[in-house]
Write a structure and sequence with these properties.
heterodimer, A: 114 residues, mainly beta, 7-stranded mixed β-sheet, 4-stranded antiparallel β-sheet, 48% strand, globular, B: mainly beta, 6-stranded mixed β-sheet, 5-stranded antiparallel β-sheet
Chain lengths: 114, 111
């Protein structure tokens, strides 16, 4: 079946602008994760959802970052007042359930803040 | 929180040789240890994983070993091929929480 998909694949924005990044998990997967990957580093956890609720948002760097998953499927990561330091690849992953270990990653959205 | 360290950061081998990448973790409650392969510009792909109730797992040319007492685990790739060239990430997870990744190892297999 279809894997995790993310849109857009690339996003270029100007400092101070607002951006939204979308993640479509594998159908039926109830757990959804957002990670951020800077060049040459491993993915860094941001937030994860079990169903519609954020089970752990302790990785969000500050209050400019927010994520939602209103219907328990698609998720949107929202970044307000973008800064150059926000430039990175934003990865989404999903897994069948909260207690299921294996996470399947999407291709990521490369965000560039000019 | 969990901290994962990965070594080496770069590894170059000749085709047909073996490659070993090592990781250590800090949280003794971690019980799941996956390894991901990431090619340039692509998504991380799970290649093998191991749970804390198992000491070793093998899948064709790839194997992972886990030493819970020492809190370290390793990836072993035998008979390396040029298409094995990529960045490899280890990770650790406490049940029901996020993955914590290592910094990655750039593996280059020279023909």
């Amino acid at each position: 079946g279809a894997g995790v998909s993310q849109t857009p694949s690339n996003k270029v924005t100007e400092k101070g602008k607002y951006v939204e990044l979308r993640c479509d998990p594998i159908s039926g997967h109830t757990a959804l994760y957002w990670y951020r990957q800077s060049l040459g580093q491993g993915p860094e956890f941001l937030i994860y959802f079990q169903g519609t609720g954020a089970a752990d948002d302790s990785g969000l760097p500050n209050d400019r970052f927010f994520a939602v998953r209103p219907e328990g499927s698609v998720s949107t990561l929202k970044i307000q007042r973008t800064e150059r330091g926000d430039s990175a690849v934003y990865l989404c992953a999903s897994s069948p359930g909260f207690a299921t270990d294996t996470q399947y990653f999407g291709p990521g959205t490369r965000l560039t803040v000019l | 929180g969990e901290n994962v360290e990965q070594h080496p950061s770069t590894l170059s081998v000749q085709e047909g040789d073996s490659a070993v990448i090592k990781c250590t973790y800090s949280d003794s409650a971690s019980n799941y240890f996956p390894w991901y392969k990431q090619e340039l510009g692509k998504r991380p792909q799970l290649i093998i994983d191991i749970r804390s109730n198992v000491g070793e797992k093998k899948d064709q040319r790839i194997a992972v070993t886990l030493n819970k007492t020492a809190k370290h685990f390793s990836l072993h790739i035998t008979e390396t091929q040029p298409e094995d060239s990529a960045v490899y990430f280890c990770a650790a997870r406490v049940s029901g929480s996020r993955l914590t990744f290592g910094e990655g190892t750039q593996l280059t297999v020279n023909p």
